[in-house]
Amino acid sequence: MKKINYLIEIEEFDSINELCKDDQDLLKQAISASENAYAPYSKYHVGAALRLNDGKIILGNNQENVAYPSGLCAERVAFFHANSNYPGKIVEAVAITAKSEAFVVNRPVTPCGSCRQVMAETENIQQRKIRVIMMGETGSVLIAQSIESLLPLMFQAEELKIK
Questions:
Q1: Among residues 12, 84, 104, 123, which one has the fewest Cβ atoms lying within 10 Å of its Cβ?
Q2: pLDDT tens readout for residues 32-47
Q3: Residue 75 is among the residues annotated as catalytic for this protein
Q4: Could you give the number of structural domains in the chain?
Q5: Is the confidence at residue 67, as pLDDT, over 80?
Q6: pTM over 0.70
Q7: Domain holding 133: CATH number?
Q8: What's the rounded Cα separation, in Å, for the pair 21 and 116?
Q9: What residues are paired with 35 via a beta bridge?
């Protein structure tokens, strides 16, 4: 038996004002996207904004359904939209934020496991890291330089691809 340690790096900023202009703008787009979330059950409105390598911004927000498994997270809405409408474009960064009708979201919102796996697959396909910028309504902002920092043991099975 051997013990393996994984090192993850996350940058923490006190507020959105400490970020570079591009990251601030992307987070503002995510905030805007959260306004259009369809969240009548959880009252938790999540917004995501992707920046593609040509500067195009893709928005996504959570879409709930009374049959809960039929809903979709904001991040996957944005990633799937980008892949279906802009195939071959590189996703450089994603910003994620949320607000609630019931409480103040005062911690950075991190993507769920399914969204992390979709981001990992995107990184793998494009062979380029994706910056992940996470914020709540208030408080600090976290930035990971790659999804690998959020999902160090991501599922990968290249051998599943039919040759």
A1: 84
A2: 999 999 999 999 999 9
A3: yes
A4: 1
A5: yes
A6: yes
A7: 3.40.140.10
A8: 25
A9: none
